[in-house]
């Protein structure tokens, strides 16, 4: 490995992340600003591309904003910030219209040509707009094409941020975010990106778990960088496990969309017996946390490797037309879902907590914004309702863009110091990284997974402290690379998850403790404050804190 060199680039806005949130923000700023978008891999390789279900919005005359708000609050188990939910849902129709104007090819009904609305867990109405069973792919494809064509947007693929840079503001001692150090995976160089405003749109942290539906890049980078820079994080204990991911020795945890259950798929035990009616009156359409725990319970009770999701009772043409991605992928593994049930297991899917932000996407550090799954807005509470996440990406990215556009002219371009690696060396022991990566994800799965106990959390606390010391020592002495950057961030996020879970002495939503099975009468968000807390005059509202 050659020694990385340092170069410098300047932009009005630096967006770290290239999914629905990051690209929506970039497109909304492209006509007035010089924007850089960092993508860890190829532009499409993020969680948005793999989102199958859809995007929730109130479009049906029989539906209402009040109903969507009520469903979201109910799914959030008392921890949603009501004004955030109302703000997001009120802007849902405008978000869909914006995507339609860009050319996103959503599925329409054959009879009228209207948008086809499906229903998913927790929703009382059909309000999920989709593009067959590959909605994320349709959205990401359209946004990517638009971003590549936008004159004000420069895309940097295969670039991963190492850390944020902050400096005192001119004329006072308050700190502001002024850019980031970025590792170029192609040239093996570390580059200083200077920017008037930085936006974190890095997605979630589900790769902290051994089994996940997320792509490899979901390593919590934005959450970890924001925490190190002095920003608060909220509700990190609420990690959503998707109930139904394909269980197959040759499959890399392929997600089986919740829309199958929305269209009548039945969860069955290995002997074919349905079981969800024993856990919730909505059966397969219960909120995801309940479905995931039910599957986990039945697998442990029976000693089974999986359960089965069966939609074979539906017409073959219906299955093929509504779920072509699931049908073809399963067929590749020898499973014909029109004739047989799909073996499924739960897997880490969505990070409901994240960096604390307000309605403009502003964090505690001046000129640092965050949007999408990397944030805590208060929308999801203790459990994200299906298909609200893509909606949050669009709504908050547009809001952040409006706020940034108003402020840009008053912000001066910073001057950065180069990346200093004069006292580090190449490593010939990269096996340490792979070993620590594996150990981290395994003990998080075993001790901080779907069902938790205080003893398990104590064990996880002990292990993460030892692991972080080893990782930080390695980081301090060796030249950075992609795996080391991600491992450092994963370890940081793991600590935040463990700390948050340890503080919650109850079971609520996605956090279920055998030691505290009851739900407290007081609904309290878990807000962690770093020792270098960077709060300025930005007021971020948090319910019940």
Can you describe this structure?
With about 550 residues, this protein is α/β, with parallel strands linked by helices. It has three domains: about 5-240 and about 350-410, FAD/NAD(P)-binding domain, CATH 3.50.50.60; about 240-350, Succinate dehydrogenase/fumarate reductase flavoprotein, catalytic domain (Flavocytochrome C3, Chain A, domain 1); about 430-520, Fumarate reductase/succinate dehydrogenase flavoprotein-like, C-terminal domain (Methane Monooxygenase Hydroxylase, Chain G, domain 1, Up-down Bundle), CATH 1.20.58.100. Helices cover about 35% and strands about 20% of the residues. The protein has helices at about 20-30, 45-50, 65-75, 80-90, 90-100, 135-150, 220-230, 260, 290-300, 315-320, 325-330, 390-405, 430-445, 455-475, 480-505; strands spanning about 5-15, 35-40, 55, 115-120, 130, 155, 160-170, 175-185, 190-200, 235, 240-245, 265-270, 305-310, 340-350, 355, 370, 375, 525-530. The strands form four sheets. Strands 1, 2, 6, 7, 8, 9 and 16 form a seven-stranded mixed sheet that branches. Strands 17-15-10-18 form a four-stranded mixed sheet, covered by helices on one side. Strands 11-14-13-12 form a four-stranded antiparallel sheet, with helices on one face. Strand 7 (about 160-170) and strand 8 (about 175-185) form a beta hairpin. Helix 7 packs across helix 15 (about 480-505), helix 13 (about 430-445) runs antiparallel to helix 14 (about 455-475) and helix 13 (about 430-445) packs parallel to helix 15. The longest helix has 24 residues, at about 455-475. It starts with 5 loop residues before the first strand and ends in a 17-residue tail after the last strand.
